[in-house]
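Budget justification aside, the reviewers requested a transparent look at the raw inputs and outputs of the sequence design task funded under Objective 1. We therefore reproduce one unedited record. The lines immediately below are the structure tokens for a 175-residue chain.
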């Protein structure tokens, strides 16, 4: 249990460093480490990690209150921008930065898959799920999709990509 606690502590520490990081190279490396670490956790470890994304990564309520008061008083664009910034959970920035890692989007989708069965018995995790939902909705909307008919005239690399994705997905579920 102590080893799991140490590993979770290290992952959370890396998450804080990732949010604070300014360099893209170091950010990619940290994001990759966190996602690899999450991938090695057992079911309980994943639950504990996702739980740690709860309260510590919620917005600062004092800052939100002050920003809301300022917006009510001044009703300016600047006050609105501060209210929006104050209201955004740091957890969303962490998830965005985790997406920097190679394969980050797929890893985040799998992280949410691990989260969904936990929601019924852990209502505090609904905030974490809401952040995944908001980000995925902004990342995966219909405006980004391009549907094309695939036939014998389609360049060979397009069906090959689809085949590699399906093979990788099948392999992941089998092994």
């Amino acid at each position: 249990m102590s080893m799991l606690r140490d590993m979770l502590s290290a992952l959370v520490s890396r998450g804080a460093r990732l949010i604070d990081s300014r360099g893209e190279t170091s950010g990619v490396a940290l994001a990759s480490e966190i996602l690899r670490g999450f991938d090695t956790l057992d079911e309980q470890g994943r639950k504990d990690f996702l739980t740690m994304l709860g309260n510590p990564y919620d917005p600062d309520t004092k800052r939100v209150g002050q920003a809301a008061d300022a917006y009510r008083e001044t009703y300016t664009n600047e006050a609105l921008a501060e209210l929006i910034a104050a209201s955004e959970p740091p957890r969303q920035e962490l998830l965005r930065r985790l997406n920097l890692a190679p394969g980050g989007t797929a890893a985040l989708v799998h992280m949410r898959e691990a989260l969904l069965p936990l929601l019924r018995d852990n209502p505090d995790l609904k905030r974490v799920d809401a952040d995944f939902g908001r980000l995925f909705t902004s990342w995966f909307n219909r405006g980004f999709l391009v549907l094309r008919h695939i036939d014998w005239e389609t360049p060979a690399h397009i069906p090959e990509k689809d085949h590699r994705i399906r093979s990788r997905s099948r392999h992941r579920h089998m092994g």
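The first helix runs from residue 2 to 20. The CA atoms of residues 115 and 145 lie 26 Å apart. Computational costs for records of this kind are itemized in the attached budget.
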